[in-house]
């Protein structure tokens, strides 16, 4: 396959909707037949009174029962595979942000296809073999490490497996190796900038950073813009999860208007998490994915628990693969307070509009005499800490704006820069003390 200036896989990236449909139908039939090598799916199909040959069209997909994270746990570690262990060459496991870890197995072909997907994403945002790619993900079980490593190498970039942590060393690598592309989780990208400032390093003057790939945790549009301004880069949203390989599932193109999900790898459904029925076009629901390009451990109708929607319309970039909106969060992240459903990202959206506020915040839920209450602590920047009156005024206007968004007035507490706890990996934004009672 030959790459050209815009596309890494021109034939696949520019498929028309009809062509995507045909390819998906073929690959779905093949995948379902292959899944009958797995004891788990054989039993699932038997219970549902289904045969592999019943699944002929994309509409038939809906007859297949969902696969859940619990299924992965119940069959831990190797029970969901569709090939022999001798054909598996890699094992990854989710970082376990929510509950027990789960295991995903990969064959040689799976790893190759995964690297192809990641390379396609990176090429799409302008990465080329003369770039230097630095990866600040944790390596090991976390897929953001090796996933980006193999994709970036396949594209042909000089790839620096810096791994997580040791921010000063990361910064030294930027300047020593001439890093042009960085992969980081959003909270860490902001942290890197802070440490640069503390050491008098100006990213625009002292580094060649140009492109940032950010993902792995929900973040708002304002957070993205802030990080772009801080580091003087273009930042592209990257979505993935261990169960679907890892990074490379959906990625923004240069238009930065939603993440193309690669439909030659995945069939996308958005369902209502309660009724499990498809939501009307363009509405938010739970993302359900079927892998149609996997060998060792294909998953049928996997409930990701991530909430998002399909963006309407065509993308000017020439790719017809559907675009997902920014993730709203996981269904498990939803906070219920005084009967109101709230996602942390709604709070972030409001906070990041105040230029007096830095990027880190912590939401604490607790109960008091008259029911639930929420406290939002947020770090400040460029604020005169001695001016008590204006601090109180600022807290008040933040609380007011939050009320407009979430219909609850939280207690807002401004705290000095760097006083909130920092996580090594994904940022912890919510502390629910109510659960301890
Ligand atoms: P864990 O489930 O333990 O966090 P993963 O590393 O597999 O392990 O994380 C995948 C999850 O991370 C996704 O299901 C999603 O909730 C979140 N995620 C990944 N990329 C993004 C992104 N770009 N925006 C928002 N959330 C994301
Ligand atoms: Zn596009």
The counted number of beta strands is: 20
Rg on CA atoms, Å: 22 Å
Sheet of most strands? 8 strands, mixed
| Whole-number count of domains | 2
Hetero groups:
adenosine-5'-diphosphate, zinc ion
The global form is globular
CATH topology of the largest domain: Rossmann fold
At the first level of CATH, the class of the largest domain is: Alpha Beta
Q: pLDDT average, as an integer? A: 94
**Strand adjacency order, main sheet:** 4-3-5-6-7-8-9-13
Give the class from helix and strand content and strand pairing: alpha/beta
Spell out the CATH superfamily of the largest domain: ANL, N-terminal domain
Number of helices: 12
| Distance separating the two termini | 59 Å
What would CATH call the architecture of the largest domain? 3-Layer(aba) Sandwich
Helix content: 25-40%
Uncertain spans: none
Query: Beta-strand percentage?
Result: 15-25%
Describe this structure in words.
The chain has 437 residues and is of the alpha/beta class. It has two domains: 1-332, Rossmann fold; 335-436, 2-Layer Sandwich (GMP Synthetase, Chain A, domain 3), CATH 3.30.300. Helix content is 31%, strand content 23%. The chain is built from twelve helices and 20 strands. The protein has helices at 10-13, 17-35, 39-47, 69-74, 108-124, 143-155, 167-177, 186-198, 203-206, 221-231, 344-351, 388-406; strands spanning 88-93, 103-107, 132-135, 158-160, 181-184, 211-215, 234-239, 250-252, 259-261, 266-271, 285-291, 302-308, 323-324, 329-330, 335-337, 340-342, 357-368, 371-380, 411-415, 430-432. Strands 4-3-5-6-7-8-9-13 form an eight-stranded mixed β-sheet, sandwiched between helices. Strand 8 and strand 9 (259-261) form a beta hairpin. Helix 8 runs parallel beside helix 10 (221-231). It is globular and about 70 Å long. The model has no long low-confidence stretch (mean pLDDT 94). The chain binds adenosine-5'-diphosphate and zinc ion.
